[in-house]
Structure formats: structure tokens, C-alpha cells
Design goal:
2 domains, mainly beta, Methylamine Dehydrogenase, Chain H, single chain, 529 residues, 45 strands
């Protein structure tokens, strides 16, 4: 029986990888520890957003100053605002928070016990904590944002300064600091940006350890080649190639980075779909032209680019290059765009697209599959799985939701013989509910062969024909029996003992599992037997 896989090789590894883009860093010479707050980013792009439900990319990493080994990684619900090591105890105070975009400032005071890794959220009520500072062994100074900006236009420039005392901060538990201890007049406060200083600190610490530091984030797509090379698309990189030795063969930089990677039919090149977001330039918002490029896998040379004119998603399957427009603002029904040696031709109508309802990237597809709605004015309703025939016609196969009362969002999928295994989530007015995410295997007439319900949406899945491997945004990785959906094994993904989350995965031709992580690393995993 196949057991939990072992990480054999890590491509793109580096110091402080776990925290993503740093926002602040604090060095404690007494304990020889370093605390870093950062952000891995969201896990949605203009072509897919289902996996972002319940996700937070805010992180705090605690590292040994000598050797930079990661001791602890903490997920935070809110951005990290301030860090302070206790003067005596093995304890780290963390202030977090943000404005919710409506009226409230929310956040937490987190206390991390550095010996055990235990965490306590000390405030009874959510408050944005702008500053934490130890005044003594027993006194902690806090600066908190106002509760809200209701009838207070200056709330974003104000704070409440208090000093909370405890005889033993190591014994402070969850919710033990009440609102009465946080009452203080509002005064003007300055909220400095520490990100540039944090980057300099991390670069200097890495150099002192004989290493180099740079930010890598979100490996959106990964593929294995027959010769053992590994291809990936990630933030800031259109595509890159790693040799089996672990050396980087080539990389093509990009302002945003690649989001999809589909091997071309010629076997010597790969299609990459780049993200293009609006950016503020002065008083205006601008967006670069959409980019879909074909890159030679041996050289990294861009061989050709397509100009669809609108944002698109790549649709795998077949010899033609097929794009589906993902900009749903147009009033006319969208059509598939098909490219071959004769140039671009318009394919059949597929209706509008949105990043929650229509993602349906099918791996190992023998033909193109898409999700289409039956109502042109509301294409998210009554979605069907449809297949594109060799003659260019689109045929509906079966309803996307097999439960009539449930509205299912789209997600990753893989073809296994005459069936599809696809993942997604059930829409609910109060957000994703327990058991509201699923993986299901269905025959091409829509009948359900098995289903597996979970609490967290899948970020990626693939199969070797015998096992379906599924990654979740919780950091979990599960192997399901492809025949009946039973769980073969389940694990929390880690690199050198520190947790991480898989954003993409692929079963390589050699049989090992390739995993692209949210923190910019690529794991080559071997099954244990």
C-alpha cells in the first residue's frame, strides 16, 4: 500500500520562504531569534477563485538567528502590524489587524510560546493592534485602532495607547484581556511602513549565513517532463525550468507571472497564460495587454505569442490551442477562441465566465472540457459540463451539480478513462460550510461513482490512474483510491518540519508527485511503500 510521500528535493528553496513578502522583521539578540511578519498573497486569479474561500496568507515566522532554521510558522487572520519579544520569557507578542472596508477595525493580540509553539489570542473582542512594546517583564504597551470610523473621519489616523500588566505573561490565556483594560483617549498616531527595512534585515541575515534571500511566491502551475525536468509558472515568472540536479535551467520573468501551463502538442514547447491586473499609475488605473505565450522547453525562448484582446483561460485537450474569454463584462455571449496553423477562428458560444463558477481546468484531458450555463443572461446558473468535439461543436454532457438543490462552484479536475474527477464547493449564503467542499468521480453520462466531502476547498488535483492526489487550501494533502474514493492516506504538508500549502500539483512521468507551494517552492515527492 502507498504511504505518505517523502519530500526528496525542494526546488526554489531559500531562507525565510515561509512568510512570503515581508512586512516587518525583529531580531532578538538575547534569544538569538528572528521574528518576521509577511504575506503569501491570496490564492485566486482572474481565471479561478474557488480555492480562496477561508484562506489567509498572513504569516509570522520565527527563525534561529544562527543558521536561519525555521522554528515556528503561525497563520494570522489579519495582517501583521507589530512584533515584540518578551524581555525574559520565551514569548512573542504579535499585533495584527486591518480595516474591514465598512466601519470596523478588527485584529488580534497573539502570544506565541516559543518553547512549545502554543498560541493564545489574548483579547476578548477583535481589535486592530497597531503596536506592541514590552515596557518590562510585566507591562505590555499596546496601541489599538479605534473600534470603528462611524462618524469619525479621523479614525484612520488615531489610536488608543494603554499599558496592560500581568504578573506572568506566560500564563495569559485566550480572551483574558477585556475591553475595560483597553479604554483610553484617542490620540493621533503614525503608522510607519516597515517593509523596506524588513527586506534589508532579511537580506543582511541571509548574507551573514552565506546565503541569498529573495521573495518567491505562489507556484500556480507545475509539470514534469519525460527527462526529469520540472516546469513551473509562478508570481513574477512566466515560466521556469529546473534540471533533475536541482539547478535552474532557465526562467522568463514577467510583471505579474504565469498562471496556467499547458504542454503543447509538439512535445517541445509549453503554453503559458499570464495574469494581468489593473495597477494604479498616478490618478488612473492601467492594465497591460493579455499575454499567452509559447515557450521552448529546451531554451526558454518565447517562440510565439497570441493576442486574444481580452483576458482568457487556457483550455487543455486536443491539438489546437483553445482560449476561453474570462472577462465577463461584455454583453455579447463569449465564444471559444481556437488557434492553429491557419490562425485564429471563433469557436462555439460558451457564455459568460466568472472566477468562482466556471473554473474547470481538466488535467490529462483527451478533449477540451468547459462549464457552460443554460441561461445567457445568468450563465452561472444551471451549469453543465460540456466537451468540444473535433468538428468544433460543443456538446453538453451532464449537469455540473448532481444535487438539484445545491449550487456548485467550479474547480480543478482530471480525466480518468471514460470519467471525470472534479473538485469544487457548494455555495452557501454564509460562506463555505463544514462538508461544503467535495471531490467527485462521475462517468461521462453524469452518474456519480463516488464522492468525498471535505471542509476545505481543493487547490489542485491529479492522478496516476490508481490514486487521486488532492491538495487543499488548509495545507492538507490527501490520496484517494481512484476506484472507490476511499482515503489511502492524509497528511499536513511540511518542508523541514514547517507547514506549507500546495497550490498546484502534478504526477510526473516517473511516478513521483510534484507540488507547487504558496511560498514559491516546488517539492518533488517520492511515495513510500
Amino acid at each position: 500500500m502507498t504511504l505518505v510521500p517523502m519530500v526528496r528535493c525542494v526546488f526554489g528553496d531559500g531562507p525565510f520562504a515561509e512568510i512570503g513578502e515581508p512586512s516587518l522583521a525583529v531580531v532578538d539578540e538575547r534569544s538569538r531569534m528572528v521574528a518576521v511578519g509577511g504575506d503569501l498573497g491570496r490564492i485566486q486569479w482572474s481565471g479561478s477563485g474557488t480555492a480562496d474561500s477561508g484562506w489567509t496568507g498572513h504569516r509570522v515566522g520565527v527563525y534561529e538567528q544562527d543558521g536561519l532554521r525555521c522554528r515556528h510558522v503561525v497563520r494570522s487572520r489579519y495582517p501583521v502590524r507589530s512584533l515584540a519579544f518578551h524581555p525574559v520569557l520565551p514569548l512573542l507578542a504579535i499585533g495584527t489587524g486591518r480595516y474591514d472596508g465598512g466601519h470596523s477595525f478588527e485584529g488580534e493580540l497573539l502570544l506565541i510560546h516559543l518553547d512549545s509553539g502554543d498560541i493564545a489570542s489574548a483579547l476578548q473582542c477583535p481589535r486592530q493592534v497597531l503596536t506592541v512594546e514590552w515596557r518590562s517583564e510585566t507591562a505590555l504597551r499596546l496601541v489599538l485602532a479605534p473600534w470603528d470610523d462611524w462618524e469619525n473621519p479621523r479614525a484612520h489616523e488615531q489610536g488608543h495607547t494603554v499599558v496592560v500588566t500581568r504578573s506572568d505573561w506566560g500564563a495569559v490565556g485566550r480572551g483574558t484581556i477585556g475591553a475595560e483594560e483597553l479604554a483610553a483617549p484617542a490620540v493621533p498616531v503614525v503608522q510607519p511602513d516597515h517593509s523596506a527595512e524588513a527586506r534589508r534585515t532579511l537580506a543582511a541575515l541571509a548574507a551573514s549565513a552565506g546565503r541569498q534571500w529573495s521573495v518567491r511566491r505562489r507556484v500556480w502551475a507545475v509539470e514534469g517532463m519525460e527527462d526529469g525536468r520540472v516546469l513551473a509558472a509562478l508570481d513574477g515568472v512566466l515560466a521556469e525550468s529546473w534540471l533533475p540536479s536541482g539547478d535552474l535551467q532557465w526562467a522568463v520573468d514577467d510583471e505579474e507571472g504565469g498562471r496556467q501551463l499547458v504542454l503543447a502538442s509538439d512535445g517541445t514547447s509549453v503554453w503559458i497564460n499570464a495574469e494581468r491586473r489593473s495597477r494604479r499609475k498616478g490618478r488612473c488605473w492601467e492594465r497591460s495587454a493579455p499575454l499567452v505565450a509559447r515557450i521552448g522547453v529546451d531554451t526558454g525562448q518565447v517562440l510565439e505569442t497570441l493576442s486574444p484582446g481580452v483576458s482568457t483561460v487556457l483550455v487543455a485537450g486536443g491539438k489546437r490551442t483553445i482560449l476561453r474569454p474570462s472577462d465577463g463584462r461584455g454583453k455579447r455571449p463569449s465564444q471559444l477562441l481556437m488557434f492553429d496553423l491557419d490562425g485564429q477562428v471563433n469557436g462555439p458560444e460558451v457564455g459568460g465566465f466568472d472566477l468562482f463558477n466556471h473554473p474547470f481546468a481538466v488535467r490529462r484531458a483527451s478533449r477540451p472540457y468547459v462549464l457552460v450555463g443554460t441561461d445567457p443572461d445568468e450563465p452561472h446558473r444551471d451549469k453543465w459540463v460540456a466537451a468540444l468535439g473535433s468538428d468544433g461543436t460543443l456538446r453538453r454532457l451532464f449537469p455540473h451539480s448532481w444535487v438539484p438543490a445545491e449550487h456548485h462552484f467550479g474547480g480543478p479536475a482530471v480525466e480518468i478513462g471514460p470519467s471525470l474527477v472534479h473538485a469544487g464547493a457548494v455555495h452557501h449564503g454564509h460562506g463555505l460550510q463544514p462538508g461544503g467542499a467535495y471531490i467527485v468521480r462521475r462517468s461521462l453520462n453524469g452518474s456519480v461513482q463516488w464522492q468525498h466531502r471535505t471542509d476545505h476547498p481543493a487547490t489542485a488535483l491529479d492522478t496516476d490512474g490508481d490514486t487521486v492526489f488532492v491538495a487543499y487550501n488548509s495545507g492538507a494533502l490527501t490520496a484517494l483510491d481512484a476506484a472507490d474514493g476511499s482515503v489511502r492516506w492524509h497528511t499536513e504538508l511540511e518542508v523541514d518540519g514547517a507547514p506549507t500549502t500546495a497550490l498546484s500539483l502534478a504526477v510526473a512521468p516517473q511516478g513521483h508527485l510534484l507540488i507547487g507551494t504558496v511560498d514559491g517552492r516546488i517539492l518533488e515527492c517520492l511515495p513510500r511503500r
